């Protein structure tokens, strides 16, 4: 999580398989609600967003990406756990290089030793119907 009052530059990957997308599950304690968002992470000083994207997928789920295509830059203002957040998102569309990633139900990964997350395939219809919450909402423009 970023420091209060700072804009964070992150990179996210839109990975689709027919009508499913690969997302990570999060929980907002203040809102007491589960949400989903594309996988990715912070862009470090001196690295491009594309390099950051590949590094994050290697670090978090040991996955290589292919067919990487830049989509857009999105500005995201949000509240998470009761705190204001501000992100600049570099959004890419890509595929997993290893076809085995399309067979998994879900996997658990650690951002830090104390913070574990679940990544999974979810049918886009569940987000469009409002049954599940996809963030940021502007993501719907790319589905």
Description:
By secondary structure, the protein is mostly beta strands. It has a single domain, classed as Nucleoside Triphosphate Pyrophosphohydrolase. The chain is built from 2 helices and 7 strands, in the order E-E-E-H-E-E-E-E-H. Strands 1, 2, 3, 4, 5, 6 and 7 form a 7-stranded mixed β-sheet that branches.
Structure summary:
By secondary structure, the protein is mainly beta.
SS elements, strand count: 7
CATH class: Alpha Beta
Low-pLDDT residue spans = none
Task: Note the total helix count.
Answer: 2
Oligomer state equals single chain
How is the secondary structure organized here?
Layout: E1 8-17, E2 20-28, E3 33-42, H1 49-61, E4 65-80, E5 83-96, E6 106-112, E7 115-123, H2 124-128
Parallel strand pairs: 1-5
Antiparallel strand pairs: 1-2, 1-3, 2-3, 2-7, 4-5, 6-7
Features:
143 residues, mainly beta, Nucleoside Triphosphate Pyrophosphohydrolase, seven-stranded mixed beta sheet, globular, NUDIX_hydrolase_dom, NUDIX_hydrolase-like_dom_sf
